[in-house]
């Protein structure tokens, strides 16, 4: 089902789980040191906030969960592939689905929307239907999978229509309402 926000995704999961008589325990994502380092330009080695995630997610060991659905956009917005693999390894053999992420992770399936095609089609529409020629995009964090795929779709559409593309056409944000770029 299409989602606009992580809360929409969670609502859909809860609704379907209720139909199936499955109990859901939701942990709201907290930011890791990677978040603070990227957003606030802080040195993660000096200020480690990972204990927030460890305390909340340590609860999983007490719950004897059958499976986990992890929203990458909520917990891992600023985690690169290696950091995400390390984060997921914390849960051992619990079967997991990582939502809003792609790639191969051990003991984990992934689900992600087609960011590339969506951004490509959006850019194509602005060019063909609205005659736009001087486009920029507000992308997410530079290492975020969604952002990387969307920037690639944007760049390819501009190139396919013979329009200029360079780094000045990209601004990076953090997908929050607080972005002021």
What would the average pLDDT be, to the nearest integer? 75
Helix count, DSSP H or I runs of 4 or more residues: 7
Shape: elongated
Alpha carbon gyration radius: 18 Å
Summarize the structure.
By secondary structure, the chain is mainly alpha-helical. It is about 45% helix and about 10% strand. The strands form two sheets. It has a three-stranded parallel beta sheet with strand order 1-2-3.
Report what the structure shows.
The protein is mainly α. It contains 7 helices and 5 strands, in the order αααβααββαβαβ. The chain has helices spanning 6-19, 33-40, 50-63, 72-75, 81-89, 115-128, 145-160; strands at residues 68-71, 96-99, 108-111, 137-139, 170-172. Helix 7 (145-160) links the parallel strand 4 (137-139) and strand 5 (170-172). Helix 6 (115-128) runs parallel beside helix 7. The longest helix has 16 residues, at 145-160. The model has no long low-confidence stretch (mean pLDDT 75).
């Amino acid at each position: 089902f299409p989602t606009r926000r992580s809360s929409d995704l969670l609502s859909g999961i809860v609704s379907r789980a209720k139909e199936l008589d499955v109990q859901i325990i939701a942990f709201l994502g907290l930011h890791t040191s990677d978040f603070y380092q990227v957003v606030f330009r802080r040195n993660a080695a000096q200020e480690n906030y990972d204990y927030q995630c460890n305390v909340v997610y340590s609860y999983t060991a007490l719950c004897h969960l059958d499976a986990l659905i992890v929203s990458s956009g909520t917990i891992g917005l600023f985690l690169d592939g290696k950091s995400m693999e390390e984060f997921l390894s914390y849960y051992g053999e619990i079967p997991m689905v990582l939502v809003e992420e792609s790639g191969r992770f051990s003991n984990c399936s992934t689900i992600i929307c087609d960011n590339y095609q969506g951004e490509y089609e959006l850019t194509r529409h602005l060019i063909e239907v609205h005659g736009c020629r001087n486009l920029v995009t507000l992308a997410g964090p530079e290492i975020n999978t969604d952002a990387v795929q969307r920037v690639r779709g944007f760049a390819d559409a501009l190139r396919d229509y013979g329009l200029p593309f360079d780094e000045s056409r990209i601004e990076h944000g953090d997908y929050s309402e607080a972005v002021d770029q």
